[in-house]
Amino acid sequence: MSEQTFLVLTALADQPMHGYGIVSAAEELSGGRVRLRVGTLYGALDRLTADGLVEPDRDEVHQGRLRRYYRITDAGLSELVAEGSRREATARVALDRVRARRPRPDPGGSTA
């Protein structure tokens, strides 16, 4: 699963959102590293909808413009949990390997 898709699902995990809300949430969740473009967002939403992980929630008119809200499905939540667990396990392995590489202090105090 791409990082963009993971962020879209994460953004929708607690409430339905419209496109701009998802873009803003993804940027915040990524600490500003990821800024979803409109084409990327709606491409991801189309794929997620086709896969049954996201579905339209409702349409609202705001300042004369239509906003479509999306919500995560139960299958989407399951996939998000599974992907979050995979990412967590991978990060744990990476950090363990980095820690293993660090030089250990010499208990004898020698500087050989």
TrEMBL record:
Every Transcription regulator PadR N-terminal domain range: 8-80
Gene3D superfamilies named in the record: Winged helix-like DNA-binding domain superfamily/Winged helix DNA-binding domain
One Pfam family hit: PadR
Superkingdom of origin: Bacteria
InterPro entries listed in its UniProt record: Metal_resp_DNA-bind_regulator (IPR052509), Tscrpt_reg_PadR_N (IPR005149), WH-like_DNA-bd_sf (IPR036388), WH_DNA-bd_sf (IPR036390)
Official protein name in the record: PadR family transcriptional regulator
Origin species: Actinomycetospora succinea
